[in-house]
Design goal:
The protein is α+β, with helices and mostly antiparallel strands and 235 residues long. 33% of the residues lie in helices and 19% in strands. Strand 4 and strand 5 form a beta hairpin.
């Protein structure tokens, strides 16, 4: 049995120590970070995808506080303490929170459009909006690997332009939150155009493609639709 102190084993251990020290001394090359170029977000694009054209201004605390003092002082003098407190709470807490979340939501939607990944989705349902036709809700789904993602988009301008269930659309989604997405483009359906009044082709509904004679030429039995065709009975 060979001992640990034998020369071959000692030389092997020394070689391993030397190689590990050399590996530690080698500096790793810095990884190159590739930054994707954001998509341009112009006023036309904002209008097309449903993003606000003008940026949401910050909440004007100074102006609101001045109005609160002018309106709250008389209310305190007449003893409306609860109403004054409620007015101050709504003006300085509720409304700023609503403005903050609204602005944050718009910024996230803008980032989804500029930096989101592209995928083709299919429209499932389009709900009717309000009287101004701005509150349209579009439900869609798209496939990410083996996962099927279902999402809803509120206020989609494409819904006011004839978007229907079954249409294919180009969707930009956030990689970390796929349910947050925007519809960027509607994919036109490829249909075979046919002139109005043209005779139906073979395979269409009706009796026109039954045989070489058609409805007026004795197809499916020689009698046509007016002369006993399709079995001799006609129409």
């Amino acid at each position: 049995m060979q001992s640990v102190l034998d020369p071959p084993l000692l030389s092997e251990v020394a070689e391993r120590l030397r190689s590990s020290q050399e590996a530690d001394e080698v500096e790793e090359a810095p990884k190159r970070v590739v930054v994707a170029v954001p998509r341009p977000l112009t006023a036309e694009v904002r209008k097309r995808v449903g993003l606000p054209v003008a940026k949401i201004p910050p909440y004007r605390f100074g102006y609101v506080a001045l109005l609160l003092v002018l309106a709250g002082a008389p209310m305190l003098l007449i003893g409306w303490f609860k109403a004054t407190f409620a007015l101050a709470f709504v003006s300085l807490a509720v409304l700023p929170a609503v403005r903050f979340y609204e602005k944050r939501e718009h910024q996230l939607r803008e980032r989804v459009y500029t930096h989101g990944k592209e995928v083709v989705g299919r429209v499932l349902d389009v709900e009717p909006g309000g009287p101004d036709r701005n509150g349209k809700i579009v439900r869609l789904e798209f496939q990410l690997g083996e996962t099927r993602i279902a999402a809803s988009i509120f206020g989609c301008p494409f819904a006011r332009k004839g978007l229907e269930p079954g249409d294919d659309v180009v969707v930009y989604y956030a990689p970390d939150e796929p349910h947050r997405c925007v519809i960027a483009e509607r994919i036109a359906r490829k249909t075979k155009a046919r002139k109005v009044g043209a005779p139906p082709e073979q395979g269409d509904d009706g009796c026109g493609g039954c045989g070489p004679g058609g409805c007026g030429g004795g197809g499916c039995g020689g009698g046509g639709c007016g002369g006993g065709g399709c079995g001799g009975g006609g129409w």
